[in-house]
Amino acid sequence: MGWAQGSYVRASLTDPVLVVTATLKITDGPYNGSTIAIIGQDFVYEDVRELAVVGGTGKLRRASSHVLWTTARKASPEHLVLQLDIHASINLKIRGF
C-alpha cells in the first residue's frame, strides 16, 4: 500500500512517550502518489494511540482527521511493525457545481 518516513523524539524523562512526525506515501490504488502527513504523541505502551492527520498532497491535499496507530508486532528490539487505521476527510472538487 505504501511506505512511511518520519521521526520520533522522546517527549518525557519518566514515561515512554514519543512525539511522532511522519509522511505516509500511498503507492497503489486511486490515491497512488499522494501523501498524508501525521503528527502526535505516541504513548508507547497503550494498545491504540491516536495521532492527528494534518495535511496531505496530491488527491489527499488538505486531508484532516486522525490515525489509529497500533503495534502489530515487534520485528526486533529496535523495530516495530505498525498497523495504521487512517480516517481522513478531503475536499472533493466537482466541476459544474
Automatic annotation (TrEMBL):
Pfam families referenced in this protein's UniProt entry, alphabetically: Dirigent
Highest taxon of source: Eukaryota
UniProt keyword annotation of Secreted present: yes
GO biological process, one term: phenylpropanoid biosynthetic process
Major localization listed first in the record, in broad terms: secreted
Subcellular locations according to the entry: Secreted, Extracellular space, Apoplast
GO cellular component, one term: apoplast
Keywords of the record: Apoplast, Secreted
Subunit structure of this chain's protein: Homodimer.
Described purpose of this protein according to its UniProt entry: Dirigent proteins impart stereoselectivity on the phenoxy radical-coupling reaction, yielding optically active lignans from two molecules of coniferyl alcohol in the biosynthesis of lignans, flavonolignans, and alkaloids and thus plays a central role in plant secondary metabolism.
Family in the record: Belongs to the plant dirigent protein family.
Name recorded for this polypeptide: Dirigent protein
